[in-house]
Design brief:
single chain; alpha+beta; Protein Transport Mog1p, Chain A; 6-stranded antiparallel sheet; two-stranded antiparallel sheet; 8 strands
Length: about 140
């Protein structure tokens, strides 16, 4: 059995091979109808793959599905004491230019993606919000 904890409570999963592929989605209002979106995605890190391999596959997928997708910045970073990759990108959706800042890292055998998205003109709000989240991010002790 594996115990899982959420904000609302905790539960046990039977030991039959469930894999955590959790996605958390948060949203905040900006001006007008615009939103600041935040996602946290996690999935098991495949054997033989590096963090960079996972990021390249993710970015390649994004480029295929998002119109006008372009990487603005790609740099190595450290978050919560572990190596990370920080990506900034933009694309167009329904006539609007959008911006996303992503942080990718590996912890406890999971590839974790943090992504903050906003209209391109709110890029600094987006960056500030993600940096706030990442600077407060703490990994649980493994035991």
């Amino acid at each position: 059995m594996v115990a899982y904890y959420t904000n609302e409570g905790a539960f046990d999963l039977p030991g039959i091979g469930f894999e955590d592929r959790t996605v958390n989605v948060f949203e905040a209002d900006l001006r007008g109808n615009d939103k600041l979106g935040f996602i946290v995605c996690r999935t098991k890190m495949p054997e033989g793959k590096s963090l960079r391999d996972m990021v390249v596959a993710h970015v390649t997928h994004e480029a295929k599905r998002l119109r006008g997708y372009a990487i603005l910045d790609d740099k190595d970073a450290t978050w919560a004491g572990v190596p990370a990759i920080d990506i900034s990108s933009r694309w167009r959706h329904e006539g609007q230019a959008l911006y996303q800042r992503q942080a990718h890292l590996v912890a406890s055998g999971l590839w974790i993606l943090f992504g903050m998205t906003a209209p391109l003109e709110d890029r600094s709000t987006c960056d500030d919000a993600l940096l706030h989240v990442l600077s407060s991010f703490r990994l649980h002790e493994q035991g």
